[in-house]
Amino acid sequence: MSMSEHTNPLGDKPIRVALLGCGVVGSSVARMLVESADDLRARIGAPVELVGIAVRRVGKDRSDVPVDPALFTTDAEDLVTRADIVVEVVGGIDPARGLLLKAMESGASVVTANKALLAEDGPTLYAAADAAGVDLYYEAAVAGAIPILRPMRESLAGDDVTKVLGIVNGTTNFVLDKMDTTGAGFEETVAQAQALGYAEADPTADVEGFDAAAKAALLASLAFHTRVKGADVFREGISDVTAADIAAAKAMDHVVKLLAICERTTGQNGTSGVSVRVHPAMIARTHPLASVRDAYNAVFVEASAAGQLMFYGRGAGGDPTASAVLGDLVAVARHIVAGGRGPGESAYADLPILDVGDSVTRYHISLDVEDRPGVLAQVAQAFADTGVSIETVRQHIRTNSSSGEARANLVIVTHAATEAALAATVDALAASEVVAEVVSVMRVEGA
Ligand code: NDP
Ligand code: HSE
Questions:
Q1: pTM for the complete prediction?
Q2: Rounded Cα gap, residues 295 and 167, in angstroms
Q3: Which residue in 90, 102, 286, 415 could disulfide with 389, CB within 3.0 to 4.6 Å?
Q4: Exposed, middle or buried by CB within 10 Å (0-12, 13-18, 19+), for 84?
């Protein structure tokens, strides 16, 4: 039976869509809804009618958005009660949360790109969707245009996902890529990412890793059937990544990327659980993630039966994100036409979230040291005492950026060790009389 042969419970009436937000993403969604109306009708089996667009400033010039200006309103509370599907691209926690709860109570399904809200209070939204018998879809919330949540929720629902490793923030990838390839400065590249519509309203969410942590929480929740909140994710942003770190990575034929890493693993006390972290890390230029340039995103998934899967595409920007929003809208509208709902929350595994001290990786450590006999032995002893094995050591002369003084610099790359052991090593090095300064410590992933 074709989609158009289903009985539309709305009769001949169109499916009413309310759009909350008409910024970078919302304006692309509105334009695509209008320009693709005929195709959407054919794909859904019913026409779609845009019944209103809630914004903050109704008087703002929006002549680039090809809709009747009378559709714009500041009364989002009323708008959500007049729709079959509410598309939320406002962002932030409140008022988005209250509006979506009201929409679902009023019987509307929800499509949202709001990772911050889902990572803060996803279970409340899922519960509201269950209570109202409506859909909650949010493909655009992670990795822009890339279909990654639907594969996790549906295609891999019969497999055991063991690891998800990805570049999930376009802004920071854009910044790190430009710092690596053009030597451009940090502030300048963040401003470019904002102008291109990649950055969040407050780019601190991107730069400090909050956006990636929210996405990691959503990925881990779906991958491991366990509730993971943004606050559960160990997070370090890129604001402390220096030109010297980028140069140090280059010297090892590596690049620096902000990675989201979600793993099923066993902690030191034998507890089986979930480790979720976001931080900058060096990866070899030969690693597939090293070739993810500009604001592109990529996500690796490892599953017991499927093996390794890779998803790649545009991770931010109006049109790419609107593509994911429209995909969800079609899926939800088809459910309205054909009956039934998409998957709800799956959190039955309820695994513990492990402490970051349990996570295991390799480390690149740069130390300024005294240049005299016995120093290397004392440095090596600090590693031995804390149970961290050294893979390589390189010594050269480094000019200190603040004092201009020439110092002996040791670059040490370790074998895999726990965060806890590495932290103890760094403390021992910092306290050592032969170490003038621990210049930098960066994780090395993907060996
Ligand atoms: P923008 O800041 O560009 O747009 C936000 C829109 O929401 C604006 O139209 C604004 O109105 C409106 N708005 C703000 N507050 C209210 C309110 N209280 N009531 C009604 N409308 C309001 O954000 P983006 O389009 O960049 O992002 C929207 C969402 O999509 C966020 O959740 C973001 O995380 C997510 N997202 C963004 C991506 C991107 O690349 N930009 C990619 C993936 C997800 P006005 O126009 O009057 O200011
Ligand atoms: N600010 C986000 C990013 C938008 O840069 O990736 C996409 O979620």
A1: 0.95
A2: 10
A3: 415
A4: buried
